[in-house]
Amino acid sequence: MSFAGTFKALAHPIRREILTLLKEKSLTAGEIASHFDLAGATISHHLSILKKAGLVVERREKNFIYYELCTSVLEDIMTWFADLKERSGDENE
């Protein structure tokens, strides 16, 4: 997915909170849903958007699907921001 899609995924506060939860450990959809007062289908929708953006990956273990934070996309964005900052810093000198 493009940076635009990633930024769109990050724009929603529920999705940002899901990422914060996954920063600590892998969780099932049910475990994620227990932190919100939302329908399971709504959590699934948010997880789908995060997966399409490459921010979350799923791992199957027996009868469960665990969701994990995928930091490679975040690292790409941070590198891009650092490059922008570096370039803008060069122009101010």
From TrEMBL:
Residues 1-89 form the HTH arsR-type domain. CDD domains: HTH_ARSR. The keyword Cytoplasm does not apply. The keyword Protease does not apply. GO terms for molecular function: DNA binding; DNA-binding transcription factor activity. Pfam families: HTH_5 (PF01022). Keywords: DNA-binding, Transcription, Transcription regulation. This is DNA-binding transcriptional regulator, ArsR family. It comes from Streptococcus equinus.
